[in-house]
# Entry
Amino acid sequence: MKIAITIWGNRVSPVFDAAATLLVAHIENRMVVKKSYTSFDPGTPFDLIKLLKKMQIPVLICGAISTKPADLIVNNDIKLISFVTGNALKLIETFARKQTIKKSYMMPGCSKQYCWRQNSKKSDI
# Structure
């Protein structure tokens, strides 16, 4: 499985629109086996969707995100886990082991509309 996290420094970017880097993690047998970084432009969500599809990444984890890019991501069959905060490297290690995001990584007042949101047509996780 591959996941991508929008990052700012070593943390999950608090706001999707401010991120310019993705941390991509390859997870096998509940362990992170490879990490890589790639640049993207959050102002062009269609390009991000193309990038995620090209890299075969079905899950995007991010901080706060506006409705329009969130809907575009979800409607293109990418699972969106939003309103996440914290150290990105610790987050992916925990996610790999437990296959879930602990409440301590969720932003206060997490919007139920987008936390763990995915297109109802299919489920990758």
Observations:
- The chain has a mean pLDDT of 87.
- The chain has three helices and six strands.
- The first helix runs from residue 45 to 54.
